[in-house]
Write a structure and sequence with these properties.
315 residues; GMP Synthetase, Chain A, domain 3; 3-stranded mixed β-sheet; 4-stranded antiparallel β-sheet; 18% strand; 31% helix; Ribosomal protein S3 C-terminal domain; alpha+beta
Length: 315
């Protein structure tokens, strides 16, 4: 048998084992298998979310599965090892099965796929894509795709790191196909550049000694303008005022002379002179006399206008 035919035969055998165990442990959160053939027999690692249901009471369920593989598929001495899935949200097979179960319970397809997408991204996946196909709204088939993050489509990264799973579920309208692709958090891509952080250099603190006879000058602090203003005290009323200052401060205003308005058969009385009120008690006598000489002026009497003579009219 050629190498190509052997590879094809091994792949077909693995698909048959996967389908048989998926139907057997659908309720246990089946997550896939790895098949390795050894001289002692076929070694199968079965990934499940609930290992207790796979093993069964006293290992009865796992023994029945081994007998079916040996009788139906012809595997020689199959040895099944059950492995619990640590992060179910990062397993595409488990997430696709959850979406299928939600559709069977009558949950709207958009709510189911968005719930699975959010749970996968919150678990730390670098990218996730979910495609659902079938008669979603009408009898005619269509598809809807939701994605988040980075999911490569071709090349070696797509074959190496992207995990895919496809599950079909039967509904009244028809058959729905669910395709889930997940990129795990530990995926490494060749085009991803990692920048190393620069090292931080810490210099030791050095103490400087001044030569003998040299002292450091303490900086002088300048008081703010507000503090200086508060220190200035306002003058009190008990302080003595010099004579020259009193003369300068004394008011030296002269009242304007009133003008008498002429009026027939009337003479205005002379206006009494305006006298300046006495200065304050604290002023000296010399200041009072000088003040009187300036302000005390006699207003002249108003001139009396003679009466107009009456001229008789000519006859």
């Amino acid at each position: 048998m050629s190498v190509v035919k052997r590879i094809i035969q091994d792949s077909i055998e693995k698909v048959k084992v996967d389908e048989l165990l998926a139907d057997e442990y659908e309720q246990a959160g089946y997550g896939g298998i790895t098949l390795t053939k050894t001289p002692l027999g076929a070694q199968i690692n079965l990934f499940a979310m609930r290992p207790g249901r796979v093993i069964g009471k006293r290992g009865r369920a796992i023994k029945e599965a081994s007998a079916r593989l040996e009788n139906e598929l012809g595997l020689a001495n199959p040895q099944i090892t059950v492995v619990e899935v640590e992060f179910p949200e990062l397993d595409p097979r488990i997430m696709a099965a959850r979406i299928a179960n939600a559709l069977e319970r009558g949950v709207h397809y958009r709510r189911a796929i968005f719930w699975s997408l959010n749970r996968t991204i919150e678990a730390g996946a670098l990218g996730c894509e979910i495609v659902i196909k079938g008669p979603l709204r009408s009898n005619r088939a269509r598809y809807e795709k939701v994605s988040e993050g980075y999911v490569p489509k071709s090349g070696d990264p797509a074959l190496t790191w992207v995990k895919k799973a496809v599950i079909h579920v039967k509904q009244k309208k028809g058959v729905f196909g669910i395709n889930v692709s997940i990129v795990p958090p530990d995926a490494k891509f060749p085009d991803k550049i990692k920048l190393d952080s620069l090292p931080v250099i810490e210099y030791p603190e050095e103490e400087y000694e001044l030569p003998a006879g040299v002292e450091l000058e303490t900086p002088t602090t300048v008081e703010p303008a507000q503090e200086v203003a508060e220190q200035v005290t306002e003058p009190t009323g008990t302080e003595e005022v010099p004579e020259t200052a009193a003369l300068e401060e004394a008011p030296m205003t002269v009242e304007p002379e009133p003008v008498a308005e002429p009026h027939i058969d009337s003479v205005e009385e002379p206006i009494e002179s305006v006298q300046k009120p006495e200065a304050e008690s604290d002023a000296t006598p010399e200041i009072v006399e000088a003040e009187k000489e300036i302000t005390a002026e006699v207003v002249p009497e108003a001139e009396v206008v003679p009466e107009a003579e009456v001229v008789p009219e000519a006859e």
